[in-house]
Amino acid sequence: MIDKLNMILNGLRNAIMSTVEKPLGRLRSMGVEVGEEGTMGDWGWAVISKAMEVGILSLGDADIDAMYYVFRRCATLEEMTREALSRPGEVDENFVNNLLDDFRENVEALSRIKERLDLLLA
């Protein structure tokens, strides 16, 4: 079970890094840094927010709401996974399987965000 929980954390990190790769690269080329956040999901949203703030991205309200929601879901999943890792004796297989289902849904949603960002930044 611990391996599955660690896989969720590593997979989330990789998926979020891949999702924000282009806007992050543009920010860095402009000398703009994005500070650390409590979770990777919050950090991913911070990259998008900073990219909008400096004019790299122009998003409508629907895109903003949808992207924020996905990154927030990722942050919540990360928090729940870390909590489960801190108390492995209290976590059952069903709970871990539910986290894995959430992970898969989040990765799919992140891939749609990546496609949207790639179009906007092409």
Determine the number of helices (DSSP H or I, runs of at least 4 residues). Answer: 5
* Share of helix, binned: over 70%
Structural class: mainly alpha
What do the pLDDT scores average to? Answer: 97
Total domains: 1
Strand percentage:
under 5%
Gross morphology is elongated
Radius of gyration: 15 Å
List segments where confidence is low: pLDDT < 50 over at least 5 consecutive residues.
none
In the CATH hierarchy, the third-tier topology is known as Four Helix Bundle (Hemerythrin (Met), subunit A)
- Encode the helix/strand succession as letters: HHHHH
- Describe the sheet with the most strands: none
Query: Which CATH top level class fits?
Result: Mainly Alpha
> How far apart are the termini?
41 Å
Please tally the β strands and state the result: 0
